[in-house]
Amino acid sequence: MRQFDPEQAMVETRRSFGEHGGVVPSIERSSTFSVLEPGTMPEIFAGEKTPDAGGCFLYSRHFNPTVNVLARYLAAMEGTEAGICTATGMGAITVAMLQICRMGSHMVASNTIYGGTHAFIKEVLPDMGVESTFVDPTDLSAIEAAIRPNTKMIYVEVMGNPKLNIADIPALSKIAKAHGVKLMVDNTFTPVMISAKELGADVVIYSLTKFVNGASDLMGGAVLSTKEFIFELMDLHTGRAMLLGPSMDSRVAFDVAQRLPLLPLRMREHCRRTQIIAEAVEEMGVAVCYPGLKSHPQHELLASMVNESYGFGGLLTVDCVTIEKANQLMSVLQNKEKFGVIAVSLGYYDTLLSCSGSSTSSEISAEEQHEMGLSPGLVRISIGLTGSLDNRIEQIKRALIEVGLAK
Ligand SMILES: *Cc1c(COP(=O)(O)O)cnc(C)c1O
Question: For the whole model, what pTM was predicted?
């Protein structure tokens, strides 16, 4: 039994309080900060005099007090030494990859990842001299076989997008360690449920745009890792985060920090509702995929990794086989049953419906979609927290019958 409790860790993190004693942090909007002793400027620039070492903040692209509050809070949740927040999830992924991979490097990446990440690895990194091999993340021997002498990292999502396949983080961590490469894990689908660093990840990535913020009203990302790696990213002369500049705004950081204490409650409810809906849909004989179902190939694996009191996530997929059928189902669910809204993204308090092959995974070619086993009629549903659950179950049952996927 693992001892780490992300909820407790967050509570125990010293919060920064408002400058007037408010129970919430202040929003520090300064882009620049005054240096009381001009003689200390060189030390501050050299990174020797940080705010916790008698120095001060320098410039908000480097560190900002409010953004730092959120970063510390997220690092506590994940159990890492440190973290930085970025303007988007892609901002976090790209700077972290560019920090590890240089011209001549190679990466082993899961072939079931977010479309934007897949496109960056396939289309942009080669122009910078970084090669990659895409592999089925559940095939450990294929992952190990893909490692070359110049491989610098393995990249996976805990819960793959959009197939909801599960990566065995402890096993991947062993492989990474044996070959001296870093394991970078995108935990966007499974925050607080899964403590990726505790399971062996070296670098944990989030798109805060999804479950972590949970309100679909802002964008953000985070890189959580060792102090050493975070300082590398923020190095004034070589840091990819510092120099590419995908910094988070302090007002955004404040909003996310205010919603973070409710994340454990929200995730438990997303998990509870999705489990019940998935079971009801499976009972109708519909091709539903949800890691909480015994029929899911990595059900036991996810059960072995998930933190106590959480379920199996807030996403399920229904395979409608064709795009036409998928569109028909989404249309009935949105326009007739008011079950959810047709929109990309996930982790919102309302239910979101999208057809992955023609939306969030459309950057992946039809051929590759076929190779990774992605059906063109796959509807991804991010189950929300609103409405009576009994009513939701009736709505989806009626819709499945109406479009002829069930009797
Ligand atoms: C959305 C998403 C991203 C990208 O995050 P943005 O905040 O949209 O830049 C990366 N990984 C996963 C798994 C995502 O769902």
Answer: 0.95
